[in-house]
C-alpha cells in the first residue's frame, strides 16, 4: 500500500436525503469517492460490489463504470480528486472499492469541516483545506485497514461471513432497543465470543459500533430539525433525552444543545 497520500481536489458536493441517483451508472475522468453520512446504497465497480452505509467510503478509479442504486434516502459527500503520484493499474485496483472508517467521532468531525468548506474549492484557502480533509480520510482508512489486516492474521477463529452477518444485523436494528444477547444467540456463540470476534474483524465492539451509528444520526437530527431531545432520542434507539445527552456528552465532548447551537450559527 502506498505511503504518499497527497492529492488534488477536483470537485466536492454534499447531498442530503437523496432518494435516487440521477444516473444509475457513470464513468469519470477523475477518482470519485462517495462518503456516506446517512442511508445506504448498492454499488458495483468492475468486479467489486456491495452495500455501503455510515462510515463507508466507496472509491472508484477513473475510467471505470460506477454502478449505484439507493436503498434508503442517502446523505453523502461526493468527492472528485486526482493523485499527486498517479497509481499504476495494480495499485488502482487496490485503492478502489469500499473502505470503512470505524472512528465515528473523528469521521463526523472531518465531515463537518468538509461541509463548512463547501464546493468552491478551486481557490485558496478552500483548496488547501479540502485537500487536507480528503487526505485525512485516506489516512484514517489506511490506518484502520492496516489494523484490520493485522487483527485478521491473529484471529483465525473469527469467520468473516459470521461477522459480516453480525454487522448487517446491527445496521438493521441500530436505532431500535436491542440486546446483544439476541445477536449472539442468533449466531450460536456467547456474548464474550461475539465481542472478541467483532473487535478482531472491525477494531470496535458491537456496542461501540451501534453507539457510533446512533450518535451520527443524533448529530444529523440536531442540525436539521428543531425537534426536542426526547423525540431525537427515540429516533436513535435511546429511551429518553437524558440518556442520549449523557452518552452524547461522554463520546463527543459537548452536550446535544451545544452541538445544535454550534451548527445553527
Notes on the structure:
The protein has 265 residues and is of the alpha+beta class. The chain has 2 domains: 7-152, Jelly Rolls, CATH 2.60.120; 160-262, Orthogonal Bundle (Arc Repressor Mutant, subunit A), CATH 1.10.10. It is 49% helix and 21% strand. The protein has helices at residues 89-95, 104-117, 126-154, 160-173, 180-187, 191-202, 206-224, 229-235, 241-252, 256-262, and strands spanning 7-18, 25-26, 31-38, 41-45, 48-52, 56-60, 66-70, 74-83, 97-100. The chain has a 5-stranded antiparallel β-sheet with strand order 1-8-3-6-9, covered by helices on one side. It has a 4-stranded antiparallel β-sheet with strand order 2-7-4-5, with no helix packed on it. β4 (41-45) and β5 (48-52) form a beta hairpin. The protein is globular, with a radius of gyration of 19 Å.
Based on the model shown, name its key terms:
2 domains; Arc Repressor Mutant, subunit A; 265 residues; globular; five-stranded antiparallel β-sheet; alpha+beta; single chain; 10 helices; Jelly Rolls; four-stranded antiparallel β-sheet
Give the tally of structural domains: 2
Distance between the termini: 41 Å
> Measured on Cα atoms, how large is the radius of gyration?
19 Å
Per CATH, the architecture of the largest domain is Sandwich
Biggest pleated sheet: 5 strands, antiparallel
Structural class: alpha+beta
> What is the C-level CATH assignment of the largest domain?
Mainly Beta
Give the helix tally. 10
Task: Report the average pLDDT across residues.
Answer: 89
The CATH homologous superfamily of the largest domain corresponds to: Regulatory protein AraC
